[in-house]
């Protein structure tokens, strides 16, 4: 199945996560890098203080020793006081603390930030006693602390120079926060840039595909793509515009050709119809019939055909071809055709040949009308009961066209005036046709004629 996700969405889905990953990763990595530089610096600072304090303690003790005063309680107290004051001078923050315990774990002095009263005590002091000299990190006096421990053996002391962990890492945490802030700003700015950039790249493509679907939907070939740049998409747009212009031109030419063809066909049909009528009149001129007779035969035939449920095309074919029913009379000699009196049996047989002559004349034509005319010419004097001519066909052996023209030809002959007879009334003609139902005429056609007799009467003109 083809994906229906638009190009714009695809680009966002592809680029945005990539940017987020890159920006956040670089933020995290640079924070870690800053931290890896800052923490050793802070550590060295704390170690340096411890070193200073130890050196001071030893130099004091050695000075007392040199003077032979180290065992004197008075001088020792002064030395401890001097140690305390030097230690205090080393403290830089409110949370820094220097803790001194003796070998039994008893607190000798606490310099700097005093931890909450209930967390201080023998257990906490014992913890300092257990610490081995060097760097430590962990719980001390109820707080997370880091620091450096050294031994001062002359007095049996353990000294811890410590700082609260949170304060110790404050600077590096501030740097991490700054990095996160910068990363966020960079992310937002990059997303905004991507938004603008993707729009800039994708808009022409969207415009092109939009126009193509519009043309497809509306079939309106006057639409063109608005080409903005001369890049690859612009080339596509130009190409599409050229193609649609050429299609539009071809389409107009095709429409004009179809129009011309339709007109030509309509003209050809009109001419053919006119020719058929003229052809029919050739025979009727000799028979003293009028053009009106052929028109009425056409009208009645068309009506009966429609009543039988034929299509417009079938009806037109029968209506036009009916004019040719007596075309064969052109081959009948004037002495027979124009004889005022009754025909002899031979003359009557010769007269009957007009059906065959008409058929022979038309049967090989390429025109559907003339071929249908041949069929009608041959069979319009056949009778349903088989007593007609020329072949004596019975019932549905007679083509429907011949059966139809048989009914309407008799109806029109009866209701028309002739030199030897007056015109019958429509009702008298109808009664005769009904009386010939199943004899001369197809019963179904007589029924249709009778049921719609009023229509036939209206069409008599
Ligand atoms: Fe005839
Ligand atoms: Fe006729």
Structure description:
By secondary structure, the protein is α+β, with helices and mostly antiparallel strands. It has 2 domains: 7-176, 2-Layer Sandwich (Beta-Lactamase); 268-458, Hypothetical protein af1432. Helix content is 64%, strand content 8%. It has helices at residues 7-66, 73-90, 122-130, 165-168, 170-218, 232-286, 291-307, 312-321, 334-337, 345-352, 354-362, 368-379, 400-415, 426-435, 443-451, 453-458, and strands at residues 97-102, 107-112, 134-140, 143-152, 157-164. Strands 2-1-5-4-3 form a 5-stranded antiparallel sheet, with helices on both faces. A hairpin with a 4-residue loop joins strand 1 (97-102) and strand 2. The protein is rod-shaped, with a radius of gyration of 62 Å. The chain starts with 6 loop residues before the first helix and ends with a helix. 24% of the residues are buried. One fe (ii) ion binds next to loops.
